[in-house]
Design goal:
Kinase-like_dom_sf; 3-stranded antiparallel beta sheet
């Protein structure tokens, strides 16, 4: 997509845009011009096509909207569960976040000032297959920007995300504690990657084994024989079995909650102060610790900040963290579900460290999954000679930390 695009692929989206403009600006069709721009770069969003739409009146941009639409490619829609993805995201903005917001307000919390507010304004959702869509505020207009995933994060960036996640989790914990009927229907949500593994067993087995073998190859640089032995033991089962184990909701109860599930740098935007220090963040697309040297210095502090913020916010919401989610349970869950984190890293680190210009064409990847094609070729190679060193450093750092912290 480029700036020459003059319209949406379907009139359903034109009608939805008219409704958004009417509600936000009180303007009718014909009273404004529409300008389409590219909303994202290659590799930024695998599950959707992003438009930036400007509403112009008297040569002035009155409103800028980010529109996320599903891909047209049938294989991509089917293989990446596009409808399920859009439906769940629409449910978050239509139902889950409004529930969180009301619960906080009922407790006397000024949500925008010091509650869990770190989500973009969603003007409209279209959850119906096959014309799904999401219409958001354009955060760039208010000074937010995406962090360059090729750079190293600072502790300030990480603290902001950790605090946002802590408040998000505390809100769910408190609702589950005080009004469990409100969240009962969410306890059986099926994990996206696990659903893929189950429905496309043959293709996912090939893909997962490819990713696992690539990760294990990094161990050739490791001098710690005990670490190497332990990693190979943990990864001896098929990768999807580790994912199943880590997603065992019953094993997590009574402490299971809804999590973001895709909190990496392309799904976080930051707003900075005059000194270039990040002052707030917004979580998109409902990990972050990419640099081992940063984890070496601050990991324990990160965990303490998370749990302290979780506990204090839970108390403000009227629940007792010592009962709802005690510190010893938090620590034990880090170890109990650590293998899941490792399995996810093996799948995602190649994508996170890939160069956008060299990343596989997502439609080709979808076709490979659909036809159970041989995935040993370039179609599934996220790691190239240009990014291999970064990948190896990142993956080795994860192996070392997982081992040293006792998570595997």
């Amino acid at each position: 997509m480029d700036d020459t695009v003059l319209k949406f692929p379907n009139e359903i989206y034109d009608k939805a845009l008219e409704e958004v403009v009417s509600k936000q600006l009180n303007l009718s069709k014909g009273e404004y011009e529409i300008k389409f721009k590219e909303g994202s770069s290659k590799g930024d969003n695998y599950n959707g096509i992003i438009y930036r739409v400007e509403i112009i009146k008297n040569e002035e941009v009155k409103l800028s909207i980010i529109v996320k639409l599903p891909p047209d490619n049938p294989a991509r829609r089917e293989e990446f569960l596009i409808h399920k993805s859009f439906f769940q995201e629409a449910d978050f903005y239509d139902n889950i976040y409004p529930m969180y917001k009301k619960f906080q307000e009922d407790k006397g919390i000024d949500v925008q000032k010091d509650g869990f507010f770190q989500v973009p304004v969603c003007y409209k959702t279209l959850p119906d297959d096959p014309h799904e869509g999401l219409f958001f505020e354009d955060l760039k207009v208010t000074g937010f920007s995406m962090f360059d995933r090729k750079r190293d994060l600072t502790k300030d960036h990480i603290f902001l995300v950790i605090e946002a996640l802590a408040k998000m989790h505390a809100t769910y914990f408190s609702i589950k504690d005080q009004k469990p009927e409100l969240v009962e229907k969410y306890k059986d949500i099926e994990d996206y990657i696990l659903k893929q593994c189950r429905r496309k067993e043959a293709a996912m087995k090939i893909f997962n084994e490819k990713m696992k073998n690539q990760a294990l190859d990094v161990l050739k640089y490791c001098k710690n024989e005990e670490l190497v032995k332990r990693v190979r033991e943990v990864l001896s089962p098929e990768l999807h079995l580790l994912l199943e184990e880590g997603n065992d909701v019953q094993a997590a109860e009574p402490y299971a909650i809804l999590c973001h599930g895709d909190c990496w740098m392309n799904n976080v935007m930051y707003q900075y102060d005059e000194n270039g220090i990040p002052k707030t963040c917004i979580l998109l697309d409902h990990t972050i610790m990419r640099t081992k040297s940063l984890r070496d210095k601050y990991y324990n502090e990160f965990m303490s900040v998370y749990f302290d913020k979780l506990s204090s916010f839970m108390q403000r919401l009227g629940s007792d963290p010592a009962i709802v989610f005690p510190r010893d349970i938090f620590e034990s869950h880090l170890k109990k579900f650590g293998k899941f984190g490792l399995a996810m890293a093996i799948i995602l680190v190649p994508m996170v460290t890939s160069d956008a210009d060299d990343a596989p064409e997502i439609d080709d990847v979808a076709d490979a999954f659909k036809d159970n094609k041989d995935q040993s070729g370039d179609v599934m190679n996220f790691t190239t000679a240009k990014t291999l060193k970064v990948y190896e450093q990142r993956m080795m750092g994860i192996f070392e930390d997982m081992y040293n912290y006792g998570y595997i």
